[in-house]
Amino acid sequence: MEVILIQDVKSLGKKGEIVKVNDGYARNFILPKKLGLEATKQNLNDLKLQKAAEEKKQKELLDEAKEQAKKLEEITVKLSIKAGEGGKTFGSVSTKEIASAVKEQYGFDLDKKKLQLSDPIKNAGSYTVPVKLHPQVTAEMKVKVEAV
């Protein structure tokens, strides 16, 4: 019997796959536990429509991420850090501070987890910070840190 999996089933397949299983396994385990549906014409058509809708949604998310990447690459975020004599700074600039500065200065809601800062910024100067907006889209945002 062919079955369309609704959920991931260990050692059988992932959600959305069509797998061939024994009739008893399907009737006694997969169908009663709602892990899959019988592969009828109606169910196969529904699966095809769901996959098309999911692909469309993913494409829209990718396009939205590309637009946001263009906007982020054009801006320069300005931050200040306290400094003592001789230019020695106190503290550092973290991703949380950069994200809040972007929201405050430009109105973008940017998740601090998307900023890929290897180490916190501890010196004044200009930096480029990679922002991973989508698995396929990474933007380079400019950050200017001034000593106060």
Automatic annotation (TrEMBL):
Look up the domain of life of the source: Bacteria
What is an example of a GO molecular function annotated in this UniProt entry?
structural constituent of ribosome
Coiled-coil ranges per the record? Answer: 37-82
Q: Where is the Large ribosomal subunit protein bL9 C-terminal domain?
A: 64-147
Query: Which is one Pfam family of this protein?
Result: Ribosomal_L9_N
The Gene Ontology biological process terms listed for this entry are: translation
| Gene3D superfamilies with a match to the protein in the record | Ribosomal protein L9, C-terminal domain (3.10.430.100), Ribosomal protein L9, N-terminal domain (3.40.5.10)
Listed A to Z, the keywords are:
Coiled coil, Ribonucleoprotein, Ribosomal protein, RNA-binding, rRNA-binding
What cellular-component terms does GO give this entry? Answer: ribonucleoprotein complex; ribosome
> Where in this chain does the record put each Ribosomal protein L9 domain?
1-47
State its role.
Answer: Binds to the 23S rRNA.
Into which family does the record put it?
Belongs to the bacterial ribosomal protein bL9 family.
NCBIfam families noted in UniProt: L9
- Name of the molecule in the record: Large ribosomal subunit protein bL9
State the organism of origin: Mobilitalea sibirica
